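Quick one, T. Sequence first:
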Amino acid sequence: MSDDTNKDQALSADDLASVLHGLASSPGRRITSINVSGRRVWIKRFDIEPLAFAKRLHWLVSPVLFPVFLRGSKPALGEAGVERECSKMAAFQAAGFQTPDVIYRSGATLILSDVSPVLTEQLAGASEQERRELLPVLFAALGRIHGAGLVHGRPHLRDISIREGKTFFFDFEEAPETTMPLADAQARDLWLVMLPVVAAEPDADQCRLFLRAWLDIAPVAAILALRRFLGFCRPVLGLARLVPVSLQGGDLRRFLGAARFLVAAISDMDSAIAANGHRAGSQQVKS
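Structure tokens:
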């Protein structure tokens, strides 16, 4: 998406003054929310936070990591970060999916429309019944995205909003599909969403319902990629039994919880592979 595509959305002099005031009032902040012409917008700066050492190290060793599922995409900073985000939003919108609107972009700064509340806030204030109604919508939307040949890259719950039955995706800052096969990148999307969901939902049967909402739609290749990754996880789960719970950090506990749940749900994946493969074959015959 080039700057030319946003010239018709150029800010008025008053709006631009509000943006400049917001930036001046929050130096060093990567993301700022302000009101412009009576509406809330988000200013994202891709030239603020230096890339953390751990992320730089991950990128440097990514080419040799196995399985490929664990590789990271090349960091996009400055104008490259704006370009990546805008390009991904344009691809999602072209395929009929919801994202924030690009209001303005200039250099390493991007201004987006507001689509809050984010899913983390929605779930925090939701009843058990509401939570169990929201999450299948999310997993089904993710399945449709993958079915359209797209990848989010880093679908944390804070990067998603569900409004009036529509799922909005944003913060497209990673592109794992550039460092691994598309199917693996899509399986990685599912894995990243599962990490917080399994940690927050104690009922495994409910988690299986969420997973099935994705399995019913997801491409067979993505499900197979997920199964391959779980094959890698099996010996890790065995070794984890040797680590006392008191020594397991939050990240490790979430990893183990999601891995154990997904390994236990492999039969669901096999059923979906058979059903989705049959459906795809039937559609090819009809066409």
